[in-house]
Design brief:
The protein has helices at residues 2-22, 32-35, 38-45, 54-57, 66-84, 94-119, 127-135, 138-142, 149-164, 179-192, 196-214, 218-248, 252-257, 260-268, 277-285, 288-293, 301-311, 313-338, 353-367, 382-389, 399-416, 421-432, 435-439, 478-490, 508-512, 536-539, 544-547; strands spanning 443-448, 468-472, 497-504, 518-524, 550-555. The protein is mostly helical. The protein has two domains: 2-167 and 176-252 and 260-340 and 349-416, no CATH class; 420-555. It has a five-stranded mixed β-sheet, sandwiched between helices. Helix 6 (94-119) packs parallel to helix 9. The protein is globular, with a radius of gyration of 26 Å. It comes from Erythrocercus mccallii. It is an enzyme of class 2 (transferase).
Length: 557
């Protein structure tokens, strides 16, 4: 009966994951969910006006183009083809531009569920309990349905764990046959995010230990190692070749239009222009000055803040279990040392829970060495954590707390956090492409202030269209903001010019000090800006909706 309830609950949560993606989710987690793949591919494949981030523009690019092409690139190519074939006349719009890459990632997220189901018996966890913990986590519902490189990192980590857990359920060692695949996945993960090595370290050591335990011959061990190295090198060469062609051909258009002779020339010159994005990523991020530009945090932020923010009580219970096992291990080492007859079976190496904890805490410790620490960096760790937490004796008495925590996390990050910006872009896209605008060409100036970076691609404006100007003021101060608004107002001459200012309700009062008037205003609710948080006394007054909203203000002539 309990298993049937768990299966039904998992199915419900899986449907919620897919349905919420299609709805779509309005929360905006971090600019990287747009600017590390969809925005770049929308510019290259759909020829839309976009903002290319520094990782793709610098002389030493830090992001591989392979995964963006395989994910957002494929989905955009599909909707472009559907429109060109007249299967649907308006396939390309703000909704499909947002949802199609997310839908692909949501489908991929079920790799996590598959991995948990495969791994649970091996690691002594209840499969359906682990699946419910996974599917009910807001990390799965929100982060794993977004176009982050961290999401792909988590999926590759899950596949790696499945490949290395190759012992039979009876406890006997199985013949490790996945050396080649392990090499491919490790290298692909490294090119996606070099931090993948922190996650791959324990699975690779565990895999090497399994081979050493199951094979007597050093020749066989070397054979597995050679397969791993050869496949890793081949995969690396594929990524390096693809990145080199992309970044030396100035984007996809030039790449596809290159004739045969110039391709041969490019191949000849590859040794002079080799693009190895992970090395550029590492050289940039190992420089403390560069990391400081993106924000520095105390080294314990992952352990004390981010882990709790993502996983709640499960993170706390894992830390508690880790300390208890460490204490037990030290105690047993002392017993073995003092009593020479201490049986080796006492050592915790024979248990699987400590190994799972190592799969969780070793990557956490390595990521904590860097001063720039964001919560999303830890999302791959959900897999070992739910497997550890799903043993029959754990997490049962915390059910209510787990449910409330994940409801709050889903509401905060899936709906509220910067939640007005995506609906605002939807609204502006409809306005710009309205029949009135098409029949009478108009010029639009869109000024964003105190919001996350607006993904220009969602406005669905062709690169050839010069009638729309986007200005991102980021977190500009009152003086700079007013100066820009006044300057735009003074240049407000043409009859078909429209200036819109997009600003959170918490800084709405700043604009009123600029001495300009507005023709109309639209309030999009909800929108929570953590950079400009609402004041509690105002929230308790009748003005709370304004404080939790995003304004679209149209400047009066």
């Amino acid at each position: 009966g309990a298993a049937m309830v768990a299966r039904a609950l998992w199915a419900l949560l899986a449907a919620l994951r897919a349905g919420w993606c299609l709805l779509p989710q309005s929360g905006y987690l971090h600019p990287d969910e747009f600017f590390q793949a969809p925005e770049v591919m929308a510019g290259d494949i759909l020829n839309l006006q976009v903002y290319y981030p520094w990782e793709f523009l610098s002389s030493a690019p830090c992001r591989t183009v392979v995964f963006p092409l395989m994910t957002s690139g494929v989905t955009y190519w599909v909707i472009k083809s559907l429109q060109q074939l007249d299967i649907c006349s308006s396939c390309i719009n703000s909704y499909t531009l947002l949802v199609s890459p997310r839908l692909l990632f949501t489908i991929f997220s079920f790799i996590l569920d598959y991995s948990v189901y495969q791994l649970a018996p091996f690691w002594g966890a209840d499969p359906w309990k682990a699946l419910v913990l996974l599917a009910g986590s807001y990390v799965t519902l929100v982060f794993y349905t977004r176009t982050f490189t961290n999401t792909l990192e988590g999926l590759l980590f899950a596949l790696l764990m499945v490949l290395v857990s190759s012992r039979k359920s009876s406890g006997q060692s199985a013949e490790p046959t996945s050396s080649s695949l392990i090499g491919v996945i490790t290298t692909a993960g490294f090119f996606n995010r070099p931090t993948f090595l922190a996650f791959a370290l324990m699975p690779l050591l565990y895999w090497a230990g399994l081979i050493a335990d199951s094979q007597k011959s050093i020749k066989t061990f070397l054979n597995h190692f050679l397969k791993f190295i050869l496949c890793a090198c081949f995969t690396a060469s594929v990524f390096i070749t693809a990145d080199t062609f992309y970044f030396t051909s100035m984007g996809l258009d030039n790449l596809y239009s290159t004739n045969k002779s110039s391709l041969i020339d490019a191949i000849v010159q590859l040794h002079d222009k080799m693009v190895v994005t992970p090395f550029n990523f590492l050289s940039y991020n190992l420089n403390p000055h560069n990391l400081a530009l993106h924000g520095t945090h105390p080294r314990v932020t992952h352990f004390t803040v981010n882990g709790v923010m993502l996983f709640g009580i499960l993170h706390v219970l894992a830390i508690s279990a880790g300390f208890k096992m460490l204490k037990k291990y030290v105690h047993q080492l002392m017993l073995v040392r003092w009593c020479y007859r201490g049986p080796p079976g006492l050592l915790v190496h024979s248990e699987r829970s400590p190994t799972l904890l190592l799969f969780y805490f070793v990557p956490l410790a390595f990521l904590s060495l860097f001063s720039h620490q964001e919560p999303r960096f830890l999302i791959p760790l959900i897999l070992p954590l739910v497997l550890f937490s799903a043993s029959p004796s754990r997490a049962v008495k915390w059910k209510l707390l787990i449910v409330l925590f994940n409801l709050l996390g889903a509401l905060l990050f899936g709906c509220l956090h910067q939640g007005g910006l995506i609906p605002c872009l939807f609204h502006l896209e409809q306005l710009i492409h309205s029949p009135e605008s098409s029949s009478h060409p108009r010029h639009y100036t869109l000024l964003f202030a105190h919001t996350y970076m607006p993904p220009r691609s969602l406005l669905n404006i062709k690169k050839t269209d010069v009638h729309v100007e986007v200005i991102d003021m980021a977190g500009a101060g009152e003086e700079t903001l007013c100066q820009t608004v006044k300057q735009r107002a003074s240049n407000f001459t043409c009859s078909e010019c429209h200036i819109f200012i997009i600003i959170p309700g918490t800084v709405r009062a700043t604009i009123t000090k600029c001495g300009v008037s507005f023709k109309n205003e639209t309030l999009i609710f909800p929108h929570l800006s953590m950079e400009d948080p609402p004041q509690i006394p105002i929230l308790s007054s009748g003005n709370w909706r304004s404080q939790l909203g995003l304004y679209i203000l149209q400047l009066n002539r």
